[in-house]
Design goal:
Elements (H helix, E strand, L loop, with lengths): L1 E5 L4 H13 L3 E6 L19 E5 L5 H11 L3 E4 L6 H6 L2 H23 L3 H6 L1 E7 L24 H20 L3 E6 L2 E2 L8 H10 L4 E4 L5 E3 L1 E2 H14 L5 E4 L4 E3 H15 L11 E4 L14 H7 L7 H14 L1 H7 L2 H11 L3
Parallel strand pairs: 1-2, 1-4, 2-3, 4-5, 5-6, 6-11, 7-10, 8-13
Antiparallel strand pairs: 9-12
Bound molecules: nicotinamide-adenine-dinucleotide and 2'deoxy-thymidine-5'-diphospho-alpha-D-glucose (DAU).
Length: 353
């Protein structure tokens, strides 16, 4: 038995591959283009492990996909690969359309051709699991009910629009061709291997370097934070027992403003790695807001709990402490990802704010 994972060198994909192989012996073929966000170092623990087959390539390469599917005969495709950062999508939306929309289309077509030619039993067992985001639902007013799976799609950024388009393609490939798909829409993840362009790791690495902690606008935007290991366990449950053609929302029941998040990170750093220069909060700086910034996301995760019995195992207090400790223990990983292209990104996104 084999899984084909796309984007398994990124933040969530690498956590998923590591968790999967820690729990079972089913081979993972990991297809990743190694963009700035993909990092083989995340998978260093699997070096020499025959259960992990890494393939450097693009989900838009149909010939490569056909070859991998024919050679490895996976029982499922888990599709994590994407351009994932909202701010980058504002500066350069083209890559988001290319990978998230066109890439997903190419992957669906390859999966459809492979699945159509399978024997009856393998066809029935095959799954195409599409990993998506709560951002496709748009922004919630304060006090409005959290997103359910039937909430209208109202994407507001180039990133969320491209993910919404990919969700629609996945849905259509099920309804039109019968491809056995599963879609999960998850809230904001945090944890090990999170690239420091996103809020939580950026705040940790900047604070450790004594650099400003840039909060966009008033910092009252709300996100629903989930520890990445809990996202991985939810995906495993949906893959194993989710109903074909269904969507499952995944969230942490953990709404927090960005300001609260930054204060929590600062409190932990003051405890675990105090600075002689004073409390970490001295570094907080309010900067120009993100254009089109969604005010609030919140996930109603009752369906996955009702149908599959899944609930997050970590509280925010336990998950964020583990996360801050992981960054303190992995200064070498942080130093490596802060390469020239990372510094270029910081200049692009923050210099004019
Ligand atoms: P990430 O940016 O950390 O990693 C993306 C990975 O995909 C990288 O390894 C990159 O090299 C690879 N990739 C990009 N383009 C590719 C291509 N054309 N072909 C092959 N590989 C390619 O992203 P992440 O945060 O790990 O997110 C993974 C998935 O989960 C995405 O689909 C994202 O939309 C979704 N998601 C993320 C979050 C979150 O909070 N990070 C929440 C919900 C859903
Ligand atoms: O909701 C799920 C989504 O969460 C995923 O689909 C995306 O892939 C993932 O990147 C994340 O999107 P966000 O835009 O919510 O995450 P980000 O970490 O970029 O920002 C979180 C909040 O923090 C957001 O309101 C913007 C704010 N922010 C972010 C950065 C990088 C700041 O205030 N300052 C910053 O420097």
């Amino acid at each position: 038995m084999t899984l084909l994972v796309t984007g398994g060198a990124g933040f969530i994909g690498s956590n998923f591959v590591l968790d999967w192989l820690a729990q079972c012996d089913e081979t993972v073929v990991n297809l990743d283009a190694l963009t700035y966000a993909g990092n083989l170092r995340n998978l260093a623990a699997l070096q020499g492990d025959a259960r992990h087959v890494f393939v450097h390539g693009d989900i838009g390469d149909r010939a490569l996909l056909d070859r991998l599917l024919a050679e490895h005969r996976p029982r499922a495709v888990l599709h994590f690969a994407a351009e994932s950062h909202v701010d980058r999508s504002i500066h350069g939306p083209g890559a988001f359309i290319k990978t998230n929309v066109e890439g997903t289309f190419t992957l669906l077509e390859a999966a459809r051709a492979y699945w159509s030619a399978l024997g009856e039993e393998a066809r029935a067992a095959f799954r195409f699991h599409h990993v998506s985001t709560d951002e496709v639902y748009g922004s919630l007013a304060p006090g409005a009910p959290a997103f359910t799976e039937s909430h209208p799609y109202e994407p507001n950024s180039p990133y969320s629009a491209s993910k919404a388009a990919s969700d629609h393609l996945v849905r259509a490939w099920h309804h039109t061709y019968g491809l056995p798909v599963l879609t999960t829409n998850c809230s904001n993840n945090y944890g090990p291997f999170h690239f420091p362009e996103k809020l939580i790791p950026l705040m940790i690495v900047n604070a450790l370097a004594g650099k400003p902690l840039p909060i966009y606008g008033d910092g009252q935007q709300v996100r629903d934070w989930l520890y990445v290991g809990d996202h991985c366990s939810a995906i495993r449950e949906v893959l194993a027992r989710g109903r074909v053609g269904e969507t499952y929302n995944i969230g942490g029941w953990n709404e927090q403003t960005n300001k609260q998040i930054v204060h929590t990170v600062c409190g932990l750093l003051d405890e675990l790695r105090p600075s002689a220069a004073g409390p970490c909060t001295r570094l907080i700086t309010h900067v120009a807001d993100r254009p089109g910034h969604d005010r609030r996301y919140a996930i109603d995760a009752r369906k996955i709990e009702r149908e599959l019995g899944w609930r997050p195992a970590e509280t925010f207090a336990t998950g964020i402490r583990k996360t801050v400790q992981w960054y303190l223990d992995h200064a070498d990983w942080v130093a490596e990802v802060q390469s020239g292209s990372y510094r270029d990104w910081l200049a692009t996104n923050y210099a004019a704010r």
